[in-house]
């Protein structure tokens, strides 16, 4: 099994600390999927940007609830817990 050493929120510094702070403001905590990308904050920021563009962007032709429903269904189909 692969193992990725992640940076816990209390140890985050600089760019990563800012991303974690945004995650806490948005979701109330730093979820595991966010911590998983913590070794490379650039990848984490790009991933969060993609997520925001596809699920929460206000200028999408699809309503937000539908985009989030698609994300949940894809996660369920892939047996993801997040």
Task: Please give a structural write-up.
The protein contains four helices and no strands. The chain has 82 residues and is mainly alpha-helical. The protein has one domain.
How would the blueprint of this fold be written?
Blueprint: H1 14-27, H2 32-36, H3 41-56, H4 64-77
Quick structural summary:
The protein is an all-alpha fold and 82 residues long. The protein has four helices and no strands. The mean pLDDT is 90.
- What composes the largest sheet? none
Radius of gyration: 14 Å
Query: Helical proportion?
Result: 55-70%
Number of distinct beta strands: 0
Average per-residue pLDDT, rounded, comes to 90
**Separation, N- and C-terminal Cα atoms:** 19 Å
Number of domain modules = 1
Shape descriptor:
globular
Number of helices: 4
In terms of structural class, how would the helical and strand content be classed?
Answer: mainly alpha
**Low-confidence parts:** none
Keywords for this entry:
single chain, 82 residues, mainly alpha
């Amino acid at each position: 099994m692969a193992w990725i050493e992640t940076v816990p929120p209390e140890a985050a510094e600089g760019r990563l600390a800012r991303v974690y702070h945004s995650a806490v403001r948005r979701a109330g905590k730093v979820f595991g999927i966010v911590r998983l990308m913590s070794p490379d904050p650039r990848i984490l920021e790009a991933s969060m940007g993609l997520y925001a563009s596809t699920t929460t962007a206000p200028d999408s032709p699809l309503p937000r609830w539908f985009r989030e429903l698609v994300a949940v269904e894809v996660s369920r189909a892939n047996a993801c817990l997040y």
